[in-house]
Structure formats: structure tokens, C-alpha cells
Amino acid sequence: MLASLLVIGMILICIVFSTFWQRSLMHREREKAISILSTVANIVQEMPDPKEIFSQDVLARLQNDLSASCVMLSTNNIFTRIPEKCGPEDSSLQEKVKQVIDTGVSSTKIIDASPHLPFFSRKYLVTAVPLRQNGVQGSIGAVISLQSVYDQVNQGRNIAYIYLLVNTIILTTIGLFRFIHVVVRPIEHLVTLTDAYQNDKDSPFLPDQEGNEFGQLSISLNRMLHRIDDDRQKLRETVDSLENANQQLRATQQKMVQTEKMAAIGRLAAGLAHEIGNPIGIVQGYLELLGQSGLSKDEQQQFSSRSMQELERINRLIHQLLNFARTRSDDSRSTEIHPLLQELIDMLQAQRKLAGLEFQLHLDAECDQAAGDSESLHQVFLNCLLNAIDAIKEYNAPHKGKICLTTVNTTHDEGKPFIQITIEDNGIGIKDTDKDSLFDPFFTTKEPGKGTGLGLSVSYALIEGLGGQMQIKGKEGQGAKVFILLPLWAKS
Q: What is the pTM of this model?
């Protein structure tokens, strides 16, 4: 491309100079023709009888001296020309001769002998000078071919083109080798160093000449690599810090989950304390009766059997509470939802202070094996049920309360199978101002000492961790609905 631009520029310069040179040669030919014709005119004016000088031989010699294609003499409107037929330029010469006779002033003009085509047309010089002899006006003119000018210009132009070609070859060769040395080789060197770059190298780009542009580029690349190494080190430190923070966050989350679990256990224990106390009193009364004398064997057997029933009841309540309190190891990562809900309802219905509540189960899901550990789901469902019980107590008398649990199979996330668990109550409902804060940690609408504000936050985190979703909808005075969406267990 550089060589092409160089050639085009030199050709344009050559054309411009040759054009001015051609104009200069044409001007010189014009001055020469006027000078010769003026000399002839002066000689004629000084002779007493100029007829001899206007003979055919004299005009022929004048034509030869001027290298003219046509010579014309006019006196008294009589035109004499050599040769007799001048060709297409005859009319232009005759017109110019008449013009000089009328004005008495020498005149010239350049005409085209062929249609005007750039670089191919050939021009002729038409010139005429006035002639005066014994009061008679006349004129002598000639048509001079400019072919010699064109030949001279073409010869010089050909020499210029040869010089241009030689210069182009030499300059292109020198420029190419210089370009390879200055640009290509340094770029190849930089590419090689870039491919072979290792972290343990301090300055891989060592410039040969720090003064040129590639030396400055090498210095900039070294600075950039040092900044990259510093950023990489900072990123590594940041990643380590984030890992430590994540570990602390997971530990804190586990502690928060366990804390909320213990709070739920405390509420269950408080509710079951009365249920355990009543059977103990009954057993104590039967034992006192058994200590009396005069009892028949049937009465002793009856009192003993009733005592065993009450003790079995106490054992079952304590067993349910311990099952929820202990940490379970579940490697299968799948849980059957229906038995888990039934177990929770049985445990809550065992409390006499909840005897007025109505629990309704609509377990319509054909497949209830969800992807998730039973311990987390047990805690989530219990938190939701306890919140529903508190909402009912705050709004209605216990015998008017109702909690409905429903399960259905559905699809979500591009057709993936899910199970949806809905827990609906007819309690106090949700205020519009509280809807955006339900899952915030430590947010609670309960009185101080009656709630930690972590139940829903922990439940939401557990459900999200299992790949599910959790939503709560409701209006104040119209109850609330908790929607829990869990992915079904995919058997491999």
C-alpha cells in the first residue's frame, strides 16, 4: 500500500511538471514563429517591389524554416498559400489572417487538429503578422505543428517514468526491509514473549531500544503485567476473605437455625408440660389406690392397666419431642411430605389447650417425595403451624380457629415437577405495612418475649437452600396463606 501510494504520488508530480514544461515549450514555439514572420514582414516593407519575395519558392523556404504545415499570404484580398490545400486547419489560418489585416496587430492561437481527447489530441499553432507595402495592407501567417513539442515532452516523460520506476523499486525494497526491522520483528518478539510469559518473570518485555515506540510499548506492557499481578494477589486475598466470611456466615446461619429450633422446642415443651402433668397425677392416684388393702385382683389389674396406659401416653409425647429436638442425619436428601405433616398434626392435637382448633388435611399430591432433608422441612412446617396458631389466638377464640393443610403436584421452571404445600388459617391476617418485612430477620408482630423474629427468616432460607420457593399472602382480618413450593425427588 505504501509503495502504491508512493507511485501514484510520483506519477501525479510527473504529470504536473510535464504539463508546465509543455506549456513553456509551446510559448517558445509561438515566440519563434512570430519572430520569423515579423522579420519577413519587415524585409518586405523595405523592398520597393516585393513581388519576388512572394514567389512560390520563397514561401516554400519560409514553410521549411518554420516547420509549418501551411503558409498563407494575403494582399488586396488575394490569398496565396503553400501548399495549395492546407487541410482542415486552412479555415482557421484564413480567419486569423483576415483578423490581423483588420486589426493590424499580430495574433496567435492554438487549435486541435483532431477531436479533443486528453493525452491523445494534437494541437497546432496558428499565427499571423500584419504586412504594409505602399499603402496596401496585408498579412502573412502560418500553421505550425507542435509535434516536436510533444515528442520532446514524451521523451522527457519516459525518462521520468524510468527514473520513477527505479526509485520506486529501490525505495520500496529499502522501506520493506526497514519496516520488517522496525515493526515486524519487534511485534514478533513481543508476541513470543507474551506466549511464553510466566508469573515468576518480573519483566518479560525488555526493550532493545527504550527510545522508540516499541520500547515504550514494552515498558507499558511490563507495568500492565505488574498491575495484573498485584490485582491477582488482591483478588486471591479477597477470595480467601470471602471464603472465611462465607464459613462464618454458614456457622452463624446454623446457629440461628438451631436457636429458632430450640425456641420452637421450648414452645412445644411448654404446651406438653400440662399434658404430661395430668397423666402423672392419674398414675399417682392409681398407685395410691393400689396401696390400699381390700382390693380384689380385678381392681388391682384394672388400676395397673390404666397406669400403664397413662405412662405409655407420657412416653409417646416425650418421644415425639425428642425426635424433633435431636439432630438427624439424613443422607438420602429426600423426604415424604404427607407422613411428616401427619406427625406434626398429631403432636399438636395432643395438647389440650389446642383442643378447640380444627385441623384439616387435604393431601391430594400423588407424589409427595420432595428433595430435601426431613429435619429442615420439619422445622419449616412447625414454624408455620405455630405462627398460624398464634394468629388464631390473637384474633379468634380457640374453638373457632381452623388450620387447613393442602398438598398438590404442579410444574414450575420449564416443566419441572414440584409439590406445593399450602398452610391456611383464619387468624388475624397480615397488615399491608408488614408484607414487605415478613422474611426479614428479627421482624415480629408479637409482644416482647413471645417471639424471636427468626422463624420465617430461617424457614425462607431453608426452603431457598433446598431449591424451592416460599410465599405468604393474606389481608388483615381475613387470615393468611403460606405457599411452600418444593422440587420433587428425581430418582437417578
A: 0.42
